[in-house]
## 1
Amino acid sequence: MKPHSKETGSESVVPVSSTPSISSNRISEQHGMERQFSFFSIIGLAFAILNSWTAMAASLNIVLPSGGPVAMLWGLVVSAIGALCLSASLAEICHIYPTSGGPYHWSAMLAPSEWAPLISWVCGWFAVTGWWALVATTGSLAGSLITGIIALLHPNYEVQRWHMFLIFEVWMMGSFLINTFGIRLLPTINRAALTWSITGVVVISITCLACASPTYQSPQFVFRTYINESGWNNGVAWILGLLQSAFGLTGFDAVSHIVEEMPSPHIHAPRAMILAVLIGATSGFAFLIVLLFCLTDVDAVIASPAGALLEIIYQATGSRVGAVCLLMFPVVSMAFAGQGIMTGASRMAHAFARDNGLPFSPVFARINSRFRVPLASLVLTTVLCVIFGCIYLGSSSALNAILSSSVVALNISYSIPVALLLIRGRHLLNPPDLPAPPTFTLGHIGGPIANIIGLAFAVITTVFFLLPPELPVTPSNMNYTIVVFGIITIVSATTWAATGRHHFKGPLDMEELLRMAFDARRLADMPMEHPEKPSEFRRLNLVVFFTPTMPSPAGGSSTNLSTRTEIPGSEMRTPRGAPAVLTEVSIDTNGTIAQARDYAHMPGHYPSSIATQPTPQDSLDDFGGVGGLVLGDTSPILSSIPNVHESPTTTLHSYGTDSFVSTDSAPPTRLRRASEIAASRQMSAPKALEHGSTHRGPRTPKRIIVCCDGTWQDGLIKRQSWMYSNVLKLARCLHHEDQRYDPPIPQIVFYQSGIGSEQNPYSRFIDGATGASLAEKVQEAYAFIAHNYFPGDEVFLFGFSRGAYTARMVAGFIGSIGILDRTAMDSFADIFIAMQKKCKAKDAAEHKRCDDALAPFKEICDDGRRRADFNHDKFTIKCVGVWDTVGSMGLPTVITGNSAKMHQLFDFPDDLLGPHVERGLHAMSLNEDREDFQVTKFHQTKKGKERGQQLKQVWFAGQHSDVGGGWQDHDLSDIALMWMIANIEDIVSIDVKYCKALPRPVAEWGTQLPHSSQSGIYKFGGKAMRQPSIDPATHEQMHPSVKMQGWLTPAAGAWIENYPDRFVPLLPLEQELRENWGYRQGFTPKRVDTRQAQKEFKNEQTAVKGLIAMASKALRTATQTEVLKDEGGRSVYEDSWVGRIVDEIVNKKDN
């Protein structure tokens, strides 16, 4: 399996346990929602969503003209059998794979690997569409009931379509508000819904039977009367009448979408799915019989503007007020159903968005930190339901269309995994790695029978429910379900063709999904224990398997582990109930690691809770060259082993607070043979450990290197190497370890793609233009460091453009709060917000409140060894190296106006280079003249200078990307890259051969003409030339390559003339690169924009002539020279050679 870096926009140069992946997103997202649903509340939610008796009673208008009582009762029996077979089939799958995606997750797991993404995509779109339509049905039925009450109480009232539309919209907003602000009330509401619904059906039934006595309809009418006023033949009409009962029994998969919020989901979810259908069918059948016996005038019921249900109750009771009071039971039940269905629909959309199945998926995949709900998914669901409601404005059959849309879409989503199971075989329900034998099964005979019946029911109803409800067909009574599905099909197909087929790989790889599901099953079955019992311990040993490498069915990592050997002396003891990790390493007969896994044991908790506290360095001393493995943090496994070879055979699985890595493309490591390992570990001599003691071996500090790329930059997507930025090139040229030391120092590299690099319109145009996700980038980079850092490690931060801003924000965050341990990372979001508030505090009281909030985290982290303590001799951050830092914005102010409010979100002071940074490097663009791309220079503090901090800020020729990289002609950016590498090669290990192969010169060294900054949308923005300065706090210098430019900015010209000693000398690596530049004389480059450069040069000349003419005219017509000075009396041109010309004219006038 491969890490899904494209999901997160991150790439790990070496495999580490904290690399973001899809499963880490699962765990972290799940960690944002609480497990607050008991089994009783789950049953209540399922029953509230189906709301069968209410749904069937409220939709009597559909079935009475299309089959009458026969279709109502016996159609319900048929629908119940079909729905029960479907729910049982899905429940059997859910028992094995309890995942929040429901049918579309199951489709991915049951489909052939080559078809899994497409099948999962189709199933996912039908599922979310069905749930969105199902939400809309609650508003539709509620609107019918409410307008019916008004019509009954006011006989002259005539129902208008826009009345239904307004009630529908208000109903949707109410469901949204409850799901947003009342999330903690949902379990209580669900339990109340079950009680209220059962009470309502009993009260209405008894009251109607008592009031209607003795004028009941005959059993002949109830069980055998057939009515057909649809215009279709009797067979088609009867099938169309199934819509009422099928709708009343659909949506039973709702519980599968909240498995992350329930205990023991593999047990409770399947039970709830089947019980919901059984309770719904039974209560619905009994209630419909009562209504049919109490019905006295069929024609009046069909024609009543008050609705069929209210008219029947009124006929039974003879009282309008009594009928309205009884109708409050289904109205309130519908309200309960509305919020429950909104919950299921939003969770379904959220799960699909986490897998990049929706447009703008990163937005809809977020969990709101304040309300702990997927707020964006709730908003999306509400907006789409509002659009659904617009059908009321154009069709008298709107209710029929909305009900049909929900039933058809959901039945299709149910059918896909059931069909896959039926076609591919039941062996998929008994995978070899299943933690325990299944306890819920339909059997080898009952299973296929249930699958076939359920599929037949779904296929037949899907076809017929697309037909119009009556003949002849008119625009008013048209069934607009087909239009809805046409729109959804076009959107889904377009999205698949544009991005899905390239980036959507299904919810998860097969093995990864299995592991998540199995861990959920395994850990949910473990009893909850209390960690406050230090006298009781569990013992976990490191286990090594010796086995020939066997490919897995999915073509991934090796499996079928055989010989098991426990390594004495590697045992770890932890208090009962506390996190612990069992590490398993599989080694093949050639001595190669075939598999390394951490199995987490946390009683009563999901894997997201495990290993939140790093365990001590334990006893692996020299295990096959894997020195210093830390149980609970297996990131050093691969990175600390020498002699890495390129061959995809090694896998690493690790749980952490939000980390889970699984890859089959990680470089394997050649270890000593199994016999040598056994001898080196002396397996025949077990060594016991006393409680509280640790077996420590030598530990080699590692280097954590974070590379943050610029806007729209992503090396995982751009295939042409010439498009790479300097950040990515630097990440690629770093060795896995520094072998200049003995033992070698591991170098763990984390590459973070830039803002706006994800392949969707929101990311490209909104996020990329505004930098809206900059805060998330800062948090992601800091979290990577915190999850991998161990006292003594060295931290490096590199970045370009907004990535440079990100790197500097992370450095500032570390300087203010230190590097948090994994336990403290649970509060990282609150700390981040508190830091923002502190930076924007307007008074001392507010500043003190922020300090008080941060105080607990500023004290001691991990025995004080992980703090940024300036009193210690050792720096916390080894180096911060950036190319042309710009802030969070970048869109011309002519479009955005005053962007200060948006900028305040990221308002950390990043201009100061904190004393906790040992070395600061900044390559700045001299020719960048966009007003909104002002460079943010480093300023050295007094304390940093006293500690011997190094700061180099050097100006280079070219505009923004000429320094940071990204142009096809990258001579200038290569010069800036080599300057950075030359300044860090003494503290990191660089692949020099790779570096030397990067340049593709199109001109002599340093002579390539800069690209234009004023292009595209930036033509509408202002211009502002950058000005180098002589400031002891910034340490600015000029690079010698600037002298090679054929034309210069005024600032560069003045610098060359006035400060010849401020040019930084070329370092040996740079000098070697210049001597071997490789440019061919006489070669005419195709990509050099000479016309644009010449045009700009002429513009510069014209501007200079204009300034001189203006100055001369001013001198001839005025006696004051202040016209050439600013408000402070300073010449506006004194820093440029243009200014010297003007000053010369002024001097002539004065003389």
## 2
Amino acid sequence: MGGGKTMLEMNKSRRSIRSKSQSQASLIKVKGLEGEDNGTLEKGRRKSENSQSTVQVEIDQSGLQRLLPSSLRHRFADQQLESLYRAYYCRQKNSAVLVLIILSLFFCVTSIILYCIAFTEKKIPPIAILSVCVVINIVMFILLKFRLISDKLFMYTPFIPWILFATEIYVVIGLESEPIVPSLAVGWQCFLAYLSYVMLPLPLRWCMLLSSLSCLVHTIVVIVICILNYPNVYQIGNAVGANIFLFLCANILGIISYFFNDINQRKAFLETKASLNVKIIIEEGSKEQERLLLSVLPKHVADEMVQDMGDVLVADGQFRKIYMSRHENVSILYADIVGFTAISSKCTAGELVKILNELFARFDKLAEKYHQLRIKILGDCYYCISGAPEPRSDHAVLSVHMGLAMVDAISDVRAQTKTDVNMRVGIHTGAVLGGVVGQKQWQFDVLGKDVSLANKMESGGLAGRVHISHSTTKFMHGEFELEPGDGDQREEAIRMAGMKTYLIKSVIKPYPEGTLDEIYVGGMIFDQDDDDNNEQNKEENLNKLLYEAIVEKEATQDIGKRINFITMHYHDTNMEELFDRNRQKFSSVAILGTCVVLVCCFFSYVCIAPKSLFSILTFIIGALLLTVFTVFPFAASSPKRFVGCAVSFSQWLLRKPWLRAGWTISAILVLAACNIVYMFGCDSNISNTFSLPLNSESLNCEYPVYFSYYGILVLIEVTVLVQLGFLAKILILVPLTVVYCVLYAIVLPNLFDRYDIALYGSYNTLATTVSTKYSIVGKAIAISLTLAFYIRHNEVVMRKLFIWKYEADEAKELIQKQREKNEALVYNILPAHVARDFIGTKKRDEELVSQAYDEAGVIFASCPNFNDFYTEDSVNNDGLECLRFLNEIISDYDELLNEARFKNIIKIKTIGSTYMAASGMNLGYSIPKKENGAKQDAPVKERWQHLADLTDFAYALKETLDRINSQSFNSFVLRIGINQGPIIGGVIGAKKPHFDIWGNTVNVSSRMESTGQAGKIQCVEDTMLILKEFGFTFEKRGFVKVKGKGELITYFLTGKDGKNGGSPLPNQPQDDIF
């Protein structure tokens, strides 16, 4: 085979979009804040099709992001992607607003109950305001739960309950009728500060601003009210200092939670986006394959073949399944270019193919306009049908309009080439058998006696006229003026059929033109499809589809049917295993939160409680233990900084799920134990007197209520532990809450009763207040329940996102399977190297895909006596059984191409019972060239091995047919023609692709078959000289008259040295059969 010469370079470049320069962005694995993978930077492109748990994404490095550690940089560099994520993030946060509303209701209802228990007239204003807040919260809950507000308003809803909750806290402080102390509502304020990070759909800087402002307002309000009303009662400095440490702790926990939630949400978002992206890409590719498939095969045939892909189907236990059906009242149109030889003499092969491509692309547009189904392109012949596979009553009228339009269309070629070319069109109406034959290079074909007559109507017609049979006139409905065609005087087959023919003289009823029918104007073809979508538009469409998919999923998915209400585990154990495998395994940063709580609580404790050696030792021991719990897991990722045993233990810890859970739970228990120990370090004896300022040696705890605030921070820390699942967190949260409540109300009640006596006793209001021990129990329960709801909500969100990704992956797999089937069909329609160029690209109809091959081989193998075998009677099911047998023959031929020895041979097509193949066209088969591009004088055996293989293939065809004859008691024979030389291979009609080869080499090969003798292989002298080098033997036939070539000396192959011993081919007739 010669080196390929590209006739038309295909522009496959796509514009890439980058919203940020590479200097301002890096790539990061979004895997969460894992101790062993914190901030792993990746270089390279983002892999949008990666549906695994690690998704690479460009991270913004500009602005304030530069100031953050690499592990805390999370904002996407792509602003469009970041905007889409923010919209998605808002929707996720908005769903959490119900939790915030529930908390606000808890607070209001609890406060109202406490006020009512110890009711006085001064408590009417706060009760009234809190009652209004209750109503607003209930209304908000109903509106959000049942989505009774618009999406636009829905975006702002999280702020309303947050503002309500803050207002409720300040109402309790500002309208409190009892003595105001700095510790009032500090626990609620800490909780509000934390919720600012986990509930509000805002960037981190805004969350920090709102939380800090709320803490600042609380501090200012408390200081001002305390100083104005009771300036001599308490020294508030220490208490305010304690408050600040608690607020700082709540904010740090909120920031940690924010980063974990944000990174996990981004990870889930990217995974969902990646899965959807792959799904969309595969869908688009599948649709393109399907479009390509349906452009060649009718839908009912394509659907059946796709359904059967991968199965070896044998019908009736004897024959392969044939995709063939009979259609009645079908008009068949054949159109041939008259004067094509004249064009060939004035144009190069490449120019000729380009002209044919443009002309046939126009014919395809006309076929679409006139509801024709193009069957095949045979050299310069175009034929199509109307009335099948979908029957139409106007099939004949449409076919005539098609023929007239083709005659008009050739005028452009006539002007372009300045030759006297024209179209000769023949139409016949009858019954056809339509389907595909063989196992490779499928093309929809129609066969039958009426198809043969339609072909003769074309050859017996006149240039520039539409020639129709008498059977076609029966369906004309008087829409055309006719004149005698006299086809029987020009074509023997028409005369033998005794058929009258006619020529179209004029159109009586014009075809109704419309906007959709304006296919081309002034010879220019307009593509109805918009093929100019660039990469940016595709990305925008993907983002839009992703957001719409998220909205739709939220509206339609009922996750309650997929998970257990109590354990929150999936009913599907395989899905639960996958989810658990994708859950963040460990995070030292989350455990670091326990150290933060311990330190902040200790400094707060130092501000308001006696400084004893016992409390200091407790803090030191707790800090050491929590440091070990935090630092040890880092050893696996930084082995050089730790001793070997620590590294081994860390690796073991990360491998064992039960050990990781135990490690995390132990850290929480150490933290809780330290805070509980602080309580036991206080003197709980009831006393009515204070010693202010506090005596450093005294064990009196004048503000025991702060111990409940420490407990709240411990409960909040439980929610931060991302490595624990819902059930584990609840199993920690509930016992801790119970322990705290028992301590407050049963074990250490005197601690809080002493506080009440000290606070209220001098005002004679003790009888009209609720005991502190009970109020903090209620507070602990309310906050614990709210955290439980929040933990559950987070779990639902993550599991819902996992289901979306899981379903997208499942859909992707189904689509991929469908795509593989379609792709297999496409590769059975076009040669592999051509199909690869078509799949995934969009081409215009007039776009030519062709390549020149300087040294190729071409073979035509026909079965001339098959026509005698073919009959359309009831015994043969109107010819279907005959074609079933032909399908077996062609399929056996196709199977030969699977053999390694024939790897350089590709099937081109079948024409009735004629099999056409070529060699030397496969990719990778090339002739060595010199540096200047000229071909080297390679040995003949190296250059033409593929031609020898093609000749061996001809032998194999004969042997295959002989075997079939022996099994079926038939006497079919092959007549084979072979030739070599330059050809052009390519696809005509990109929207309805038809692969073919053209050139003098193809024409001569065809003539070698048609002028040959049954049972023999004929070739010209040049081919004989090449094949002799491979040991083939020949018999000279002599001069043979070849159409368009004059007389050529031809030879018959007689055998091959070492194979047939120079003897004649098996069962080779010595005389002509026909």
## 3
Amino acid sequence: MGIHVIQSQRIDVLLQGVLASTSQPSTHPLQVLKAQHFIVPSPAIEQWLIQKLAEQQGMSANYQFHQRVRGFQWYAYQQVLTAHKEQVRKANIPRLIFKWRVHQALQEFIQPDVMSIDSSHPLHSIVQRIYDSADRLEQGIEKQLKKQKMLYWVAEQVADLFSNYMVYRGQCQRGCENMCTCPNNWLAAWGQGRSLDIEKYIAHKDKEVSAFTLQQTQELERWQRWLWQQHFHDDFMQMQQIDELFWQELEHPERQKKALSRLPQQIVIFTLLDLPPSQLQFLRRLGQYIDVLILHYNPSQEYWADSVDPLWKQRYDLGVKERYIAKNPQATDAEIADFFNKFTLNFNAEARESRHPLLTRLGKQARDHFSLLSNLSTGEEGKWVDAFVDDFPESLLGKVQSDILHLVEPQAKQYELAPNDDSIQIHVCHSTLRQLEVLKEQLIGWLAKPHEQPRRPNDILVLVPNLAEVEPLIRSVFPATATEQGVHLPVKIAGIASLDALNAWRAVIGRIHLMQGRFSFDEFADWLGLHATQQRYALEYAQVERILNLLADAGFKRGLDAEHLKRSLCDGDDDYRYSFKFALERLALGIAIPEHATFNQVLSYAKVQPGDFELIGTLIQIYQDLNERRDWLIMHEQKKSHTVEYWLQILSQDIIEFEQAGVAALKTVREIVKKQERMLTLASYYAETETGTLRKITLPLPYILDEIQRTLENQTAQAEPTGQITFAQIGQIRPLPYRLIVMLNLDAGQFPNRDTHVPFDLMDALRQQLGDRSRLEDDQGAFLDALLLAQENLWLFYNGFDVNDGEVRDPSSILQEFREHLALIVKPEPNAPDREVIEGIEIPTQLKQLYHLHYLQPFDPKGFMAENRYIRYQDHWFNVAMQIQQASGVLKPWANISYPLEIPDMLVLDSHQWIQDVTFPARLYLKTLGVENLGNVGVLDQNEPLLLDGLGRYTIRHFLQQNEQQAQPEVLLDQLPVGKVQYSAWQQGIFEQECLLERLHHYAPAVTQTTQRVWRIAKQLHMNITVPKSETQDWVSMEASSARAKRRAKVWLEYLLWLAYLNEGSAGTERRRIVVFSDQTVICKGISSEQARQYLQPWFKIWRYAQQQPLVLPAALLLKPLEKAKAYQWETTNPTEKIKLDEKSYAELLKYWNETGTFTSIDMTQNEACKLHQDWRFILQEQDAQALLQHACDEFAYDLYHPVFQFQHSE
């Protein structure tokens, strides 16, 4: 029995201590079957210890691990106090229950619209803060929701505070009899209604702000004292009673043996990250009955419990001198110096000197632990063993580690840095992404470098201060599967929930969240695209695509149904078309009525296929599921409340529903929900007699979902070492040794993390005591651990340049201090300047070889220069850099030779397609080459139409022309704008259609009926053409579109093909091709069949030409003047030369060709008359587009388009 301490700076030595303690011989044959108990500070240490024990012993079994001393403390209570098992379970209150109880306790005070408690009430300040958070909102549900949200945040902070107070400020330290009077036992004072002496114990502040700070701190203490005394004091007294019962059992002469039989004979504590004095006292007392072995990681073998931070020492010394001068304003410098020397001698300041500033600056946490444990070094309570190992590599890293071990005061300019010493590297980048790209290259080189001991991925630990933010970038740079682009490195991100689990949870709560927004098509598509959603509804990818196409075509834009849209629409706006249900009803009716017709005020969808029936059934099921959950997130707004227990059960049912469909990734989420259920059930069961309200605690569902989301995202239990390259949050995997430790994002403002300060914390406001923890000291200690436990290399990364403007940025203050320490001890070259400036970064000259400055882009050619000291590879970035470096400035055209045509034995053309080809030769050329130039995918408009644009009016006119017998507004429900405008839009469409018919009747009573005929152009060339069905002089058509240039070309070619097919020789000049467009009527007349055949010859010529090489001669450009009733002027300087456009006409043509569309809403990538069209840009890249246009105009324009201007006119 006893409490024994083995301390070392080497974790592997402490591991040997574990092996020695667990392999001691025993006389009892069944001793081997008993579990061996370990207390570890984190799951990372537990997993590492299991792996190492298995490696050393060949197996790892019958070990029981407890997370921190508090975890074992409650285990011991449960084991010994079997007669009080229910009382023990009741006393152990989880932090989540604490939060919910605080929320329940304060909720009644925020219900009134105006704060009802006066300034004399202890809760006035905190309730006032909650009301102030919503003071800018008007009275009503929005203001109440804001107060509820603020209250839940306050409850979360208070739960954290009270949990810390119970550990650090709730124990008697002097052994007071009856009533405890210890100044640090706050909870005892609060339980007795006594306030703390804030003025006495407040931390020293500037005199100017001390009065304000004092008042604020007193208000904090006042409301926290009231809340503790009224709601949690009795619970804490039960915890202390459990502790008293435990020691009574161990001290009772008759029951002691039985109690000890339930406890392990030995408990091994493997390293410490926190050590509250109360828990150390528990271990010391327990050491009187069982063996307690503490394996303590201590950075230094010397006594340094009294060493202080050098910065603190400077401030303290300055304060001593200032106080002396204030009392003795007439004192001389000699008198001040004499006083300070005497004070230093009496204060024992030499023992309190820093000695090694790096250790005392960053190791405050470790110093406190050592100071607490040093009371055990006398050997009265057990053995104290120093197992330090003086074995360090001959490198700068080894020098720093050795100095800290021996607490050697740094000697300036004494260490001579070897030229090949790369044990410590500082990498300066522009962004986190660039850091990861550089890291990957460096890791490949490090793993491939020959070494006596082979290097493996599990020798590498990468630490990040903001892991959750960096996670997507890590997955991007280090893909999970091997790719063709470079070497694959296996990595594992520790402490982060898997993407599968997060996406599966998104699928579950998507059915709840979707209705709280616009419920747009894109939002629904994202949710339906989740793998878990597809598993739940037994859908495959192709089926999902078909569902989305059906919904889009049926008119779904936003909103679930009429009830859902009512929330966002004004009173009186009752047009609920374009919702999910509107489209679904159309699809469902389309099964029975597969045509465009109305039935019972529902417009049927005519394009439903037999294979869509099952998909529509699935959509109906999805709608029912969404409808069932539509109000879950807003029930608290509707004055409907449900208990937390009810919501957890409902969520469990949803999770089970998905799991039964085969979604295995929800296991983690189910365990989180079940754990919360168990906590609530147990807490409610044991608290029924006292409170009676815990089981009935009500919370809005959004708070519960957020709680589950936070727990899922913060998977600290999964922050474990892996057999791969491990990425982890700084501080989660410590203190563990790795051959290479990398720290990323050591930027000012990123590390140390100062954003996690807990508000309302009296421990921070008042004087601290030995053993207290702070986030700043945790981060400092994590950096020190990384420095001391890196066995071979330590790489430090930070962003030294702003990615936007390239300005120089400073690294973290901790990295700056480390750099200055290295600059102090490293010997510089003779006559070398103190510092050098490289790319704006100021670097100590003697540390120049430690620094690696990286360029902004991974393909920057400068990064591959031979003089760079860091590793680069001939990967895809190298190829890009080579291409940049070797660029000649002029690239050859991608198409500079004629494409050979294959002449088939028989070719049958379709006139419609042929007209499309010759009027836009770019697409003909790409089609011939077999190239599809993919453009931007059109984005579905998420808003229902409020007004009809030109395309909308065209759609209605086109529909009316095709369906004259169904001229009712009901059949256009999927096209007309919403609201009252739909009726005016319908009337406008009818009016425009009547105008078109009226103009049509000037030429014919009806549109000319057409038919298909085959025209034999040549022996091997035939064409299917459209011609009037019966003999007629006028071929009359009506179009809903306007008479644009390309459509005029189409009319002209149809006219020529018609006359050429009739083959009437010199006759046919009286025949007319008439097309009534929406804005004007186009008429072609005046040529004979013979002329038509002559005019078609140039068109067939360019059809062949454009298949072999680019022809820049789009009809949309050449006929542009016809849209404004203008014409080109032609000229020739020599009768033997071709007729060309005159200079003015060609300048006008160039104006259209070079148009940029800067001040228009036209998408120029779709404008065939412009060189910015996506096909023209693709074909004409690296070519002179204007020269090609000039050539095409000179060769073909007159023969093709002059007859159009001569024989086509508009009315």
